[in-house]
Amino acid sequence: LQLTLAILKPHLVANPLAVKDIRNLILNNNFKIIKWRRHNLTLEDAEKFYSEHKTKFFYNRLVTFMTSGASEMYILARENAISERENAISEWRKLMGPTKVFKTQFEVPTSIRGIYGYSDTRNATHGSDSEESAKREIAIFFPEFDYE
Ligand code: ATP
Ligand code: MG
Q1: Atom 22, ligand 1: which residue's CA is nearest?
Q2: Which structural domain, as residue segments, surrounds residue 90?
Q3: Tens-place pLDDT, residues 53-74
Q4: Considering the domain boundaries, does residue 110 fall inside one?
Q5: Alpha-carbon gap, residue 19 to 1, rounded angstroms
Q6: For residue 1, what pLDDT is reported?
Q7: Is residue 148 part of a domain?
Q8: N or C: which terminal CB in the chain sees fewer CB atoms within 10 Å?
Q9: Which ipTM score applies to this complex?
């Protein structure tokens, strides 16, 4: 079964109605919540999680934001009664919309980032971009989770 790691970022978690709305979106789009937790990222978590972005101009901003308050991490799978397609990763990214928030607000206004994104950094949610990343990211926040 394909799994993905979704994160509701701090500005979203600070807004209980937004969290409720996103959870409904998750469940109404045939995702199943395998595990979830609320956790305030430590600097160590953030540096590990975003190590691929270490050299980017937005890295400090990103790490500061991601450690600024509680996030919620979800391990998601997708249930599809018709076909058993393993598409949790791409379907969650589709629901989130593109990274760049201002473009997204015009192009995909009904996506999560279209609705709840404030800026390219505070873009509401995270979603793994491949099976390899999902495995790596799940291990960071759910070290006891047995992937198989
Ligand atoms: P995510 O990995 O969070 O699902 P993504 O894969 O769409 O998002 P990445 O390129 O992996 O985007 O960037 C990781 C995170 O870094 C983004 O979610 C965003 O918070 C931040 N970020 C990316 N690009 C920019 C930018 N140009 N300016 C500011 N912050 C950015
Ligand atoms: Mg990414």
Answers
A1: 121
A2: 3-96+125-141
A3: 999 999 999 999 999 999 999 9
A4: no
A5: 26
A6: 86
A7: no
A8: C
A9: 0.91
